[in-house]
């Protein structure tokens, strides 16, 4: 029955395959792909490492830099590999933990209360998207660049996979191109094995078959081995005399009987005895039992893929073995070690797969196992081992797959004699002489003249070979510069005549190297730095544990600050490591410098940190006084910056240079000295609103020489752009308007930008309110007087009024004021001509009344002026406090004093007014 099943399987396979494929060198196999379908590994960078006829191009082009001008939104920026988007991250300080009212005012979601302090729910850090300064003040951390919202280094095209290449701006995917060579056009087995979709069938010799035919299940190809000579018959692939045929049949049937009980759980459990079958094949003597195990490996793959699942498996498929990998090679010498690795999959992700390897009758478990071969018996030059892998799932279902490896008899022995201990760690900084000796595996002497060729490679690079200290020993010398890393390989190949045969032997060895400790001396010891001072030129000395100098390498100094980290690569000048640090220390910031990297030999330096001794003041010998100190400006506003060098030894300062840089404003220049104002001046125009920039920096960089020593100072003005303008009513200045007509027909208004510059526009449309009544007005600019004239449609009459101006144009702003409109005093004096008509007796009374009226009018003017002045002062103090021009303490003291004065005046006015006469209520009629 088993024979019949095997016959049917082979017959079906032959029917599916074209019968003309007999004994082909290379045939088609499942998995054939066009070049365009291949990945980089499959395609290969050259024709001899990948698919024949294909060429790898991958991703080509030039990427765009990570700047906001190109990627103006977070979505566009993050879509570009290697780019990041600046943002405020971390966890904000809770409102109730904020101790200062100034910090509480900045924190979104928090409010300051006089009795309880700061209270509320602190907003998420992402709320602070426009200011790295405010982000840090509320306990969050600004991540990224303060110059560009989009920052970083875009990944080069050639480093991208197809999916990322198609979205990377500036890159184009070409992948693998060409036409793959057909299997039938390949003439060698080596190239066939390399080509995806091709299969190199085994030969009759591989299977140990002399006659008849067999079937290669791996390539699904029939192999024709020919017929036997006259007088011999073909029995199970062997040519034997006719009379030996009958006994041979007996043992063949016995295994069939023994497998019957095994087939209960699964119809095809024939693979179970498979691993034990090859074991007896070590003896090639033609005993009757020898052919039987010889053919067993051929039968093994026939039954391996066929185990049918148990009845309950309709809901669960058996696992699949995806691949079996053999390292370092499928052919090794006796005594060497094979490493086997498998990948399998299951339709139940939660299932725990069990990997069982059966090699030479021994069971090993695990996805990765190793097998060390022993010595081959005398007279056998090579032996093939069958390695069977069985993978089981948690439900008991399993699948099997096998592979073969070959062990060859070693004719030559190659061993390293120096260093004597193969695990000894060598010094990479010193020249090393690696010596190895060649001898016969059988112990017979090899005469030097019989060693035809000896080659050696160190890390795959060819090395020159010198004669060693003993017979048949050779030496390769390694220079310090080539011994990089902890491990390295030496590969030795020998061609020699041994026992009257020319043999070739290759063997690899692993060398180990010490990881030397490195120490950097502190270059900042005994030095002091001031706020705004640049670090400048810093020299670093590095030594090994034995005190010798570290010469060369790849080291980086990382400066860690509150907002960001900056990297500086150290340069080796032949004596020490050096770098000019174009970095200035900011206020309230004591940065740390960390050194890390590797030396010229691959010794890893994990890191050493140095602190900087920072003085909490500006360098008295040289610093810059910069005005204005404002942090808010308008769009397209021209800022005049004045910079005065300061020094306690001003007469000794030489070669002073001051530079102003603002990337956002497109300004970068060394400044000219203004003799008249005794300062350096720069006029910088802020970016327009269309730029989308809300924050920008102005960097002031100064350097000079003091007693032939360089000194420097750096300061960065962090500015915010706003279109909120300041509005001021020029007429009336004191809040009182005297008019002959008794009506106000126009007002004069001054408009300045946040930085203090006069805002100039020919006309501005706005809304004007008088005691809450709205009217539309047009402001006309007077270039000679730098203010706006505002004609009124509805004139303002006599009396006290509250006026308010609101601008909602390309700019925003509002202003409110209380005014009093009255006649001039002389209009209240009766004309002299009327006094003649008046009775002389009434002259004196009129005089007294007019005097009283005049005094009262003057007093009222003073009271109204004083009240308007105090209200204006309170409002101005609030503006000064919000702009951080005065402290909270000063703001509270001055506001309290002004409010007390205002309340006192109001109480005095209230006391002067006559009390209203109280009229008793009428009695209700009963």
Beta strands, count: 59
* Class inferred from helices and paired strands: alpha+beta
Main sheet strand line-up: 52-54-57-56-55-58-59-53
Shape: elongated
What is the overall pLDDT average?
79
Number of helices: 13
Can you walk me through this structure?
It is a single chain. The chain is an alpha+beta fold and 926 residues long. Helices cover 17% and strands 40% of the residues. The protein is built from 13 helices and 59 strands. It has an eight-stranded mixed sheet. A hairpin with a 3-residue loop joins strand 58 and strand 59 (812-822). It is elongated. Residues 1-22, 244-314 and 828-837 have low confidence and may be disordered.
List the keywords:
5-stranded mixed β-sheet; alpha+beta; 13 helices; 926 residues; 40% strand; disordered N terminus
Structure summary:
By secondary structure, the chain is of the alpha+beta class.
Secondary structure topology:
Layout: H1 2-16, E1 27-28, H2 40-43, E2 54-61, H3 74-79, E3 83-85, E4 87-89, H4 101-106, E5 110-113, E6 117-120, H5 132-137, E7 141-143, E8 150-152, H6 162-165, E9 171-178, H7 189-194, E10 198-199, H8 204-207, E11 212-216, E12 221-226, E13 232-235, E14 238-241, H9 245-262, H10 291-303, E15 320-327, E16 331-333, E17 337-345, E18 354-359, E19 362-365, E20 368-372, E21 382-392, E22 398-408, E23 412-418, E24 425-426, E25 432-440, E26 451-458, E27 461-463, E28 466-467, E29 473-478, E30 487-498, E31 501-513, E32 518-520, E33 529-531, E34 534-540, E35 542-544, E36 553-560, E37 565-569, E38 571-572, E39 577-584, E40 592-599, E41 604-611, E42 614-618, E43 623-627, E44 632-634, E45 638-646, E46 653-662, E47 667-670, E48 673-674, E49 679-685, E50 695-706, E51 709-722, E52 726-731, E53 736-738, E54 744-752, E55 763-770, E56 773-782, E57 787-796, E58 799-808, E59 812-822, H11 832-837, H12 840-882, H13 888-912
Parallel strand pairs: 16-22, 24-31, 33-42, 44-51, 53-59
Antiparallel strand pairs: 1-10, 2-9, 3-8, 4-7, 5-6, 11-12, 13-14, 15-17, 17-20, 18-19, 18-21, 21-22, 23-25, 25-29, 26-27, 26-30, 28-29, 30-31, 32-35, 34-39, 36-37, 36-40, 38-39, 40-41, 43-45, 45-49, 46-47, 46-50, 48-49, 50-51, 52-54, 54-57, 55-56, 55-58, 56-57, 58-59
């Amino acid at each position: 029955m088993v024979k019949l099943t095997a016959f049917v399987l082979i017959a079906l396979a032959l029917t599916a395959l074209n019968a003309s494929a007999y004994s082909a060198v290379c045939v088609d196999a499942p998995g054939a792909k066009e070049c365009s379908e291949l990945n980089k590994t499959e395609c290969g960078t050259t024709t001899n490492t990948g698919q024949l006829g294909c060429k790898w191009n991958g991703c080509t082009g030039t990427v765009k830099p990570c700047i906001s001008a190109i990627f103006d939104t977070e979505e566009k920026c993050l879509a570009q590999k290697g780019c990041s988007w600046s943002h405020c991250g971390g966890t904000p300080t809770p409102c109730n933990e904020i101790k200062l009212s100034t910090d509480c005012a900045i924190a979104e979601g928090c409010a300051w209360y006089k009795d309880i302090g700061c209270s509320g729910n602190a907003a998420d850090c992402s709320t602070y998207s426009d200011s790295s300064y405010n982000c840090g003040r509320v306990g969050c951390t600004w991540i990224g660049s303060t110059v560009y919202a989009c920052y970083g280094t875009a990944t080069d095209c050639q480093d991208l996979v197809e999916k990322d290449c198609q979205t990377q701006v500036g890159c184009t995917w070409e992948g693998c191109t060409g036409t793959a060579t057909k299997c039938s056009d390949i003439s060698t087995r080596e190239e066939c094995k390399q080509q995806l979709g091709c299969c190199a069938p085994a030969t009759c010799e591989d299977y140990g078959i002399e006659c008849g035919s067999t079937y290669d299940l791996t390539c699904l190809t029939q192999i024709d081995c020919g017929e036997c000579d006259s007088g011999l018959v073909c029995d199970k692939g062997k040519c034997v005399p006719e009379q030996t045929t009958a006994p041979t049949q007996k043992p063949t049937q016995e295994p069939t009987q023994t497998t019957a009980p095994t087939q209960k759980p699964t119809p095809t459990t024939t693979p179970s005895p498979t691993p034990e079958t090859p074991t007896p094949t070590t003896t090639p003597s033609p005993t009757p039992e020898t052919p039987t195990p010889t053919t067993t490996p051929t039968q093994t793959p026939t039954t391996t893929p066929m185990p049918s699942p148990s009845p309950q498996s309709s809901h669960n498929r058996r696992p699949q073995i995806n691949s079996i990998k053999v390292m370092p090679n499928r052919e090794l010498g006796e005594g060497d070690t094979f490493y086997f690795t498998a990948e399998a999959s299951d339709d139940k992700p939660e299932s725990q797969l069990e990997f069982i390897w059966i090699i030479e009758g021994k069971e090993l478990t695990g996805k990765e196992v190793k097998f060390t071969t022993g010595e081959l018996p005398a007279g056998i030059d090579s032996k093939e081992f069958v390695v069977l892998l069985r993978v089981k799932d948690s439900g008991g279902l399993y699948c099997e797959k096998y592979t073969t490896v070959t062990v060859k008899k070693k004719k030559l022995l190659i061993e390293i004699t120096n260093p004597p201990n193969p695990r000894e760690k060598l010094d990479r900084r010193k020249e090393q002489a690696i010596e190895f000796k060649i001898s016969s595996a059988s112990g017979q002497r090899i005469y030097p003249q019989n060693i035809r060729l000896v080659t050696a490679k160190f890390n795959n690079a060819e090395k020159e070979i010198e004669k060693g200290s003993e017979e048949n020993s050779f030496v390769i010398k390694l220079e310090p510069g080539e011994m990089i890393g902890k491990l390295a390989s030496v590969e030795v190949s020998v061609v020699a005549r041994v026992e009257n045969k020319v043999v070739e032997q290759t063997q690899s060895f692993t060398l180990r190297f010490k990881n030397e400790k490195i120490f950097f001396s502190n270059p900042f010891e005994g030095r002091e730095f001031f706020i705004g001072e640049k670090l400048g030129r810093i020299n670093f000395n590095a030594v090994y544990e034995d005190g010798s100098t570290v010469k060369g390498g790849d080291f980086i100094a990382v400066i860690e600050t509150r907002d960001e980290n900056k990297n500086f690569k150290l340069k080796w000048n032949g004596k020490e490591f050096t770098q000019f640090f174009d970095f200035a220390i900011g206020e309230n910031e004591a940065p740390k410098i960390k050194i890390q990297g590797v030396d010229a030999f691959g010794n890893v330096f994990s890191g050493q940190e140095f602190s900087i001794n920072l003085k909490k003041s500006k360098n008295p010998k040289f610093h810059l006084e910069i005005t204005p100190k404002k942090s808010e400006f308008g769009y397209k506003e021209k800022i005049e910056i004045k910079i005065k060098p300061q020094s306690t030894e001003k007469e000794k300062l030489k070669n002073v240079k001051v530079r102003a840089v603002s990337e956002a404003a497109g300004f970068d220049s060394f400044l000219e000295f203004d003799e008249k104002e005794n300062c350096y001046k720069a006029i910088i125009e802020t970016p327009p609103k269309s730029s989308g920039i809300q924050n920008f920096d102005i960097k002031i960089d100064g350097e000079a020489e003091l007693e032939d020593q360089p000194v420097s100072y750096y300061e960065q003005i962090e500015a915010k752009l706003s279109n909120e303008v300041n509005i001021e009513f020029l007429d009336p200045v004191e809040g009182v308007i005297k008019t002959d007509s008794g009506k106000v027909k126009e007002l004069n208004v001054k408009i300045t930008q946040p930085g203090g510059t006069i805002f100039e526009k020919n006309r501005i449309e706005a809304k004007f309110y008088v005691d809450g009544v709205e009217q539309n007005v047009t402001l006309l600019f007077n270039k000679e007087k730098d203010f706006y004239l505002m004609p009124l449609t509805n004139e303002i009459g006599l009396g006290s009024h509250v006026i308010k101006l609101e601008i909602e144009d390309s700019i925003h702003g509002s202003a409110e004021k209380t005014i009093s409109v009255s006649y001039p005093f002389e209009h209240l004096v009766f004309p002299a001509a009327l006094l003649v008509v008046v009775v002389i007796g009434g002259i004196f009374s009129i005089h007294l009344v007019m005097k009283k009226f005049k005094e009262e009018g003057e007093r009222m003017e003073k009271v109204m002026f004083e009240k308007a002045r105090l209200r204006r002062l309170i409002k101005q103090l609030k503006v000064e406090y919000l702009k951080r021009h005065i402290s909270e303490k000063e703001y509270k003291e001055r506001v309290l004093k002004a409010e007390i004065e205002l309340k006192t005046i109001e109480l005095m006015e209230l006391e002067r007014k006559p009390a209203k006469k109280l009229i008793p209520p009428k009695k209700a009629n009963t």
